[in-house]
Design a protein that fits this description.
The protein has two domains: 219 residues, Type I PLP-dependent aspartate aminotransferase-like (Major domain) (Aspartate Aminotransferase, domain 2), CATH 3.40.640.10; 132 residues, Aspartate Aminotransferase, domain 1 (Alpha-Beta Complex), CATH 3.90.1150.10. The chain is 40% helix and 15% strand. The chain binds pyridoxal-5'-phosphate (PLP). One of its GO terms (cellular component) is cytoplasm.
């Protein structure tokens, strides 16, 4: 497709021409490990990069290619790469951007395994990092070093829902020509498009909203074609965390309904947040779509809608918080997010259990903080379940 269409159209059509695939309406599943060459000479040419054509599925696969082309268009990027998990995408990108002696500036409160990876990079490879709140522009500037080769951001931050002002980050990064990487998992390209604001790389755990059906672990990276080409031949091909063709096929199916699903996630979240706010057992509500949220205006500026994730503190103790989870019936106790099913979890003992207590409390993750991934069920049923579980 040449002309760029609306987002809702591109999720269904971008990057795929059915007549190139014998008219198959849906991108076919090329469930094959390798590709035969018509002759030894063609094999030589393909390895030399002289002719187009597939070689081996770790180096490229037509189903995966459609997904990569589609997500690149959806994020407004030049190219994309597909990985076996969100963490494979994160690690491949960070290893692409750093070498021993370099420094990464990172937003505070990043995904737990990304935090673990940064510690491993420091210990084993001498790649250092600072975790910074990204609230005060001058303070952030003070953390930039001569050897800073990457600024790594999550927004909203999990699970406190704090936002990072991407325009501010880009302003700081451009002064020193430092690439900005944004983990856009919580938003998907439908709600937030960091590349349009001047960021350089976008990462997704496609496991979440992009897949949307709780049946795939996968990751994506979107950026400049020159950089994606380099990563394809190094931190993707040689480290080897490639996406399986079947997972790409499932993600292409999930993507088609992304805007429809996210509209509903967001509508449901707003209604649930309004109810939670008024409940006497809810101490604090952390939801970017509520006027009481300190960064309500920033959310309106850089996100299309405030998203489907809500965090809140309940009254009482850790025990009360766990009892509350145990009383949920329709809502499932599980980590992950962005699925059709409403999921609830207790960050202090689950996703953020590895964070030392002092750091955890400083980040705003108390013993009674709850994270809710609002699903696609009727919001009245979700609320009824929460309301009966909150009765303590
Ligand atoms: C889940 C998640 C990841 C990791 O993705 P996997 O697909 O589980 O490897 C990274 N970042 C964020 C924000 C996530 O929610």
């Amino acid at each position: 497709m040449k002309d760029k269409k609306q987002f809702e159209t591109e999720v269904i059509h971008a990057g795929y021409e059915s007549l190139d695939f014998q008219g198959s309406l849906v991108p076919p599943l090329f469930q094959t490990s390798t590709f035969t060459f018509p002759s030894a000479e063609v094999g030589e040419e393909r390895f030399a990069g002289e002719t187009e054509g597939y070689i081996y599925s770790r180096l490229g696969n037509p189903t995966v290619r459609v997904l990569q082309d589609r997500i690149a268009i959806l994020e407004g990027g030049e190219a994309a790469l597909a990985f076996s998990s969100g963490m494979a995408a994160v690690s491949a990108t960070l290893f692409h951007l750093t070498k021993t002696g370099d420094h990464i500036l990172c937003s505070e409160g990043i995904y737990g395994c990304t935090f673990g990876l940064l510690q491993l990079m420091e210990k084993n490879f001498g790649i250092n990092h600072d975790l910074v709140a990204f609230e005060n522009e001058e303070e952030v500037r003070g953390y930039i070093r001569d050897n800073t080769t990457c600024i790594y951001i999550e927004t909203p931050i999990n699970p406190t829902m704090k936002l990072v002002d991407l325009e501010m980050v880009v302003r700081i990064a451009k002064e020193k020509n430092i690439p900005v990487v944004v983990d856009n998992t919580f938003c998907s390209p439908y709600l937030q498009q960091p590349l349009a604001l001047g960021c350089d790389y976008v990462i997704h755990s496609a496991t979440k909203y992009i897949g949307g059906h709780g049946d795939v672990i996968a990751g994506l990276v979107i950026g400049k074609k020159s950089e994606m080409d380099k990563m394809a031949m190094t931190t993707l091909k040689d480290i080897g965390g490639v996406m399986s063709p079947f997972d790409a096929w499932l993600l292409l199916r999930g993507l088609k309904t992304l805007p429809v699903r996210i509209d509903r996630h967001c509508d449901n979240a707003k209604k649930i947040a309004d109810k939670l706010k008024d409940h006497p057992m809810v101490k604090t509500l952390l939801y970017p779509g509520d006027e009481s949220f300190p960064q309500y205006e920033l959310a309106k500026k850089q996100m299309r809608y405030p998203g489907g994730m809500i965090s809140f503190e309940v009254e009482g103790t850790k025990r009360d918080a766990q009892d509350f989870l145990n009383r949920c019936k329709l809502i499932k106790i599980a980590v992950s997010l962005g699925d059709s099913e409403t999921l609830i979890q207790h960050p202090a003992t689950m996703t953020h259990a590895v964070v030392p207590e002092e750091d955890r409390l400083k980040m705003g993750i108390s013993d009674t903080l709850i994270r809710l991934s609002v699903g696609l069920e009727a919001w009245e049923d979700i609320w009824e379940d929460l309301n009966q579980a909150l009765d303590f």
